[in-house]
Design goal:
This is Phosphonate metabolism transcriptional regulator PhnF. InterPro entries: Bact_HTH_transcr_reg (IPR050679), Chorismate_lyase_/UTRA_dom_sf (IPR028978), CP_lyase_PhnF (IPR012702), Tscrpt_reg_HTH_GntR (IPR000524), UTRA (IPR011663), WH-like_DNA-bd_sf (IPR036388), WH_DNA-bd_sf (IPR036390). Keywords: DNA-binding, Transcription, Transcription regulation. Pfam families: GntR, UTRA. The structure is a single chain. This protein is an alpha+beta fold. It has 2 domains: 64 residues, Orthogonal Bundle (Arc Repressor Mutant, subunit A); 160 residues, 3-Layer(aba) Sandwich (Chorismate lyase), CATH 3.40.1410.10. The chain contains 9 helices and 10 strands. The longest helix is centred in the N-terminal third of the chain and has 14 residues.
């Protein structure tokens, strides 16, 4: 259900923006059903305890973002936007997970640097804090639409050529194979929803207030040798993350 009220008049954030953010989250959560019919201005004014002008400004912001549209005689509706389903399981692979849902897929290396391992990442990769890591920032597009922005960390001493291989092959899976790693599995995945930051909005072509689903993941070789720590932001209005059984071997 839509939040009842919940507007913070002392936050310094414009009331229409707060309402737009709450409506956007409701859209992402599928609160308006298959038909996507939204409540009218009067109903929203009562729900958020604001005047209709404020509600109208919030709806105009969502129209500008392309999330909703006003249809003469039918009210305000959520626009039908194609969503991609991406399964997360023990053998998560981007291209294989989206198989049959796209015609073209591209991966761009946005940044490649060497950084010292933080305590958190060092623990996940079973390295000493400060150990040199290869940091790769990627943007993955499907049919020209940016779906995810990921920051990936690898042991620079073992996998320092991952950047070159991803550029050459267009895939982390194929890059691993080129470096002699034929298989890998997902050890863990943590998922949270949050507002996209300024950099993510630029890379994913999102509007202010857009929501991303952040997945923090660790990949290992099948015999348990750590390979990769990744933080991936998925555009929440474009991707549905389907959680499988990540700790079970496929049948």
């Amino acid at each position: 259900m839509l939040p009842q009220g919940g507007i913070d008049r002392g936050s310094g954030v414009a009331l229409w923006r707060q309402i737009a953010d709450r409506l956007r989250q409701a859209i992402v959560d599928g609160e308006f059903g298959e038909e996507g019919v939204m409540p009218g201005e009067m109903a929203l004014s009562a729900r958020f305890a604001v005047n209709r002008h404020t509600v109208r400004a919030a709806l105009a912001g969502l129209v500008e973002e392309g999330l909703i549209e006003t249809v003469q005689g039918r009210g305000t509706r959520v626009r039908a936007i194609k969503r991609y389903t991406f399964p997360i399981s023990r053998r998560t692979r981007f291209s294989e997970g989206l198989a049959g849902q796209f015609r073209d897929r591209q991966v761009a290396v946005i940044e490649e640097t060497t950084v010292p391992a933080s305590e958190r990442i060092a623990a996940e990769l079973r390295l000493a804090p400060g150990h040199p890591l290869l940091r790769l920032v990627l943007v993955s597009r499907v049919d020209g639409l940016p779906l995810s922005n990921s920051t990936n960390y690898f042991d620079a001493e073992r996998l320092g050529q991952m950047g070159a291989q991803v550029r050459e092959t267009g895939s982390i899976t194929r890059a691993y194979a080129a470096l002699g790693i034929a298989d890998y599995v997902r050890r863990s995945t943590e998922i949270t929803a949050r507002l996209a930051d300024e950099r993510e909005r630029a890379l994913l072509e999102l509007k202010p207030g857009a929501v991303v689903m952040e997945a923090r993941a660790v990949n290992d070789t099948p015999d348990g040798v750590p390979l990769q720590f990744a933080i991936t932001a998925f555009a929440a209005d474009r991707v549905t993350l389907s959680l499988g059984a990540p700790l079970e071997e496929p049948a």
